[in-house]
Design a protein that fits this description.
With 128 residues, this protein is an alpha+beta fold. The protein has one domain: Nucleoside Triphosphate Pyrophosphohydrolase, CATH 3.90.79. It is built from 2 helices and 7 strands, in the order ββββαβββα. The mean pLDDT is 96.
């Protein structure tokens, strides 16, 4: 199982989502910023690194919002979504096709990666 981390970053009543690049699996689907945990990293360290690489921001990592396991045809991921906030910087499209701030009510307007679906249900339950 592959350990993956992601950030739930809020700005008032909106949270940050990112559109996967055309060149990657699940191309153009929306997701939370994050990625795979590398050997020797904690989940928090991985999330800080991924946000720096993908968005050019420094992150404050909070507690775990929720976790999910999803089986893709070629990989099974254990996704840990952390509450997080931007400590420094403004999100930039360094890797993603697009980035947006959306409200929970706007979730149905976007096609998300399959691993994020049950997480989005939890966001709507808590904040929708």
């Amino acid at each position: 199982m592959t350990e993956v981390v992601a950030a739930l970053i809020w700005d008032n009543n909106k949270f940050l989502i990112c559109q996967r690049p055309v060149t990657k699996s699940c191309a153009l689907l929306w997701e939370f910023v994050g990625g795979k945990v590398e050997i020797g990293e904690t989940k928090e360290q991985a999330l800080i690194r991924e946000c720096r690489e993908e968005l050019g921001i420094e992150l404050n990592v909070g507690d775990v919002f929720t976790e999910a396991v999803h089986e893709y045809p070629d990989i099974t991921v254990h996704l840990t979504l952390f509450n997080a906030s931007i400590a420094k910087g403004i999100p930039q499209k360094l890797e993603h096709n697009d980035i947006r701030w959306i409200t929970p009510a706007e979730i149905p307007e976007y096609n998300f990666s399959p691993a994020d679906v049950e997480i989005l249900v939890e966001i709507v339950k808590r904040y929708g």
